[in-house]
Amino acid sequence: MRAVVTRVTRASVTVDGVVVGKIDEPGLLVLLGVTHSDGPEQAAKMARKLHEIRALRDEESCATTGAPLLVVSQFTLYGSTRKGRRPSWSEAARPEQAEPLVDAVVTELRERGARVETGVFGAMMAVESVNDGPFTLLVET
């Protein structure tokens, strides 16, 4: 499992002109990708990392501050550009494997007490964010 995590002052995701998830205060925008070898163990580990990562100002985390997270599924995080000019998506998990694992990360975050907003799995989404810093990390399990 792989996530691009950006510290933001606000972020939103829109589908078909409708805002489906947004955070209007400092928190984390999480673009989350799943690969073939991922399972429930990786989902739980990713949720813990996302909740506890000290990426907010003053080395705080969402766990310590209650800051929100906006989690957006993104299979393209497993795109490979090693050969040629066209990305290969062979490392990205198929939707029937990936969607339940993205949902498991969100569920685990909420069970930990995190405030979580989401995009819509598989939809064409417009993601807007105002980066804070900028501060962006690649988080892997």
From TrEMBL:
Q: Which GO terms describe its cellular component?
A: cytoplasm
**What does the entry give for GO biological process?**
D-amino acid catabolic process
Q: Name one Pfam family in it.
A: Tyr_Deacylase
Q: Where in the cell is it found?
A: Cytoplasm
- Which top-level enzyme class is recorded in the Swiss-Prot or TrEMBL entry? hydrolase
- SUPFAM superfamilies in UniProt: DTD-like
Q: Which reaction does it catalyse?
A: glycyl-tRNA(Ala) + H2O = tRNA(Ala) + glycine + H(+); a D-aminoacyl-tRNA + H2O = a tRNA + a D-alpha-amino acid + H(+)
Q: What is its EC number?
A: 3.1.1.96, 3.1.1.-
Q: What is its main location?
A: cytoplasm
Residue ranges of the motif Gly-cisPro motif, important for rejection of L-amino acids = 133-134
Q: Which UniProt keywords apply?
A: Cytoplasm, Hydrolase, RNA-binding, tRNA-binding
Asked if the keyword Transport belongs to this entry, the reply reads no
For the keyword Protease, the answer is no
Q: Which InterPro entries match?
A: Daa-tRNA_deacyls_DTD (IPR003732), DTD-like_sf (IPR023509)
Question: Which Gene Ontology MF annotations are present?
Answer: D-tyrosyl-tRNA(Tyr) deacylase activity; Gly-tRNA(Ala) deacylase activity; Ser(Gly)-tRNA(Ala) hydrolase activity; tRNA binding
Q: Could you say which protein family the record assigns here?
A: Belongs to the DTD family.
Q: Which PANTHER family match?
A: D-AMINOACYL-TRNA DEACYLASE 1 (PTHR10472:SF5), D-TYROSYL-TRNA TYR DEACYLASE (PTHR10472)
Q: How does it assemble?
A: Homodimer.
Q: What does this protein do?
A: An aminoacyl-tRNA editing enzyme that deacylates mischarged D-aminoacyl-tRNAs. Also deacylates mischarged glycyl-tRNA(Ala), protecting cells against glycine mischarging by AlaRS. Acts via tRNA-based rather than protein-based catalysis; rejects L-amino acids rather than detecting D-amino acids in the active site. By recycling D-aminoacyl-tRNA to D-amino acids and free tRNA molecules, this enzyme counteracts the toxicity associated with the formation of D-aminoacyl-tRNA entities in vivo and helps enforce protein L-homochirality.
What's in the domain note?
A Gly-cisPro motif from one monomer fits into the active site of the other monomer to allow specific chiral rejection of L-amino acids.
Query: How is this protein named in the record?
Result: D-aminoacyl-tRNA deacylase
- What is the protein's species of origin? Saccharopolyspora rectivirgula
